[in-house]
Amino acid sequence: MAGVFAYAPAIAALPFVSFVVALLAGKYMPKKGALAGIIATAGSLGLSIAVLVTVFLGETYNETLYTFVGGDVPFELTFGLLLDPLSAAMLVIVSLIAFLVHVFSLGYMNDEGETGLPRYYASLGLFTASMLAFVFSDNLLMAFMFFELVGLCSYLLIGFWFRRAGPPSAAKKAFLVTRFGDYFFLVGVVGVLTTFGTAQFAGEEGFPALAETVLNPETTAQAVNTFGFEPATWFAILGLLVLGGVMGKSAQFPFHTWLPDAMEGPTPVSALIHAATMVAAGVFLVARMYGFYALLPTVLAVIAFVGGFTALFAATMGVVKNEIKQVLAYSTISQYGYIMLALGTGGYVAAFFHLTTHAVFKALLFLGAGSVIIAMHHNENMWDMGGLKDHMRVTYLAFLSGSLALAGIFPFSGFWSKDEVLYEALVHGLGGSPLLLGAYAMGLAAVFLTGFYTIRMVLLTFHGEARSDTAEDPHGVRWNVKLPLAVLGVLAAVIGFLNPLPIQKLTGLEVDFLHQFLDSGPEALLTSSHHYGDLTHDYAGYSVGTIGGGETVTMLAGAGVSLGLALLGAGLAFALYRGAEPTRHTEKLGGLQTLLMHNYYQDEYQVWLAEGLTLRLSGAADTFDQGVIDGVVNGVSSVSLFSGDRLRRLQTGIVTNYAALIVLCLLVLLGAFAALGGWF
Amino acid sequence: MVLGAVPAEYYLVLSAAVFCVGIFGILTRENALIFLMSVELMLNAANINLIAFAFYWGNLTGQVFGLFVMALAAAEVAIGIGIILVLYRNFDSVDVTEATTLKW
Question: With b meaning 16 or more CB within 10 Å and e meaning fewer, what string describes A155-174?
Answer without folding.
Answer: bbbbbbbeeeeebbebbebb
